[in-house]
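Hi U.,

Before I forget, here's the chain from the pilot set. I'm dumping it here mostly so it's searchable later in email.
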Amino acid sequence: MDIFGIPLPAMLSQLLLGLVNGSFYAMLSLGLAVIFGLLNVINFAHGALYMMGAFLAWMGLSYLGLSYWVMLTVAPLLVALFGIVIEKTMLRWLYKLDHVYGLLLTFGITLMMEGIFRSVYGVSGQPYAVPEALGGAFNLGFMMLPKYRAWVVLASAVVCLATWYMIEKTRLGAYLRAGTENPKLVEAFGINVPFIVTCTYGFGVALAAFAGVLAAPVIQVSPLMGSNLIIVVFAVVVIGGMGSIMGSIFTGLGVGVIEGLTRVFYPELSATVVFIIMAIVLMLRPAGLFGKEK
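Structure:
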């Protein structure tokens, strides 16, 4: 069966591969949305922290023999601690200033991190093997779907939905939102707002590191892996609405699927389709699809 002259199996294959890419977009844009939505910081270092998570997984295996499953927990925690240091020593002083100062600071951090990893490991990339438990593939009839890619989609969906539930539906999430909107009032109730802000930034960058560990077996671990992806992720956040948690999740998955379909119908456009969508959305709805108009 063909659709517009394209065999159905080929189209379904690209849809599934697009869903995998969309899972990474959703995870990364979710971390950006959490940090911007709750702290009003445009965290350009997100891509570098994603790269750092992947490199920590690779170093844990190469130098210490730590398995993928161990590093899936340890790497995000280590990156979260690194992010907490950044927030306490640098970002904290910029909250009352224009967004551009935070953007410039995190951009500088990105350049330093990429420079350090490039000087030590070069730019060729390091291979990271798929964990043995997730080797092989599922036979879907129209394609062989690697088990690891199915795991990426599942893990991303669980983490994204859990994050949304925590921020939107729990008392902790209410404290986070209230602490950023009216910190003095929240402090009057005995809640440590600076501590909440620090933990929020740490959690946001931990999401980036988690995505980096997930990506390590899919692509080679390289100092440039974050910078190659962050511009697309920023476009996803803008389309969904800056600071919108659910917008980041749905838009990330949707952009991945649209990219997959574009590779089938018009491959030359697949690298730029997200920016075309962003331009159209900004013209029709400047706050983004899920953003709130001011």
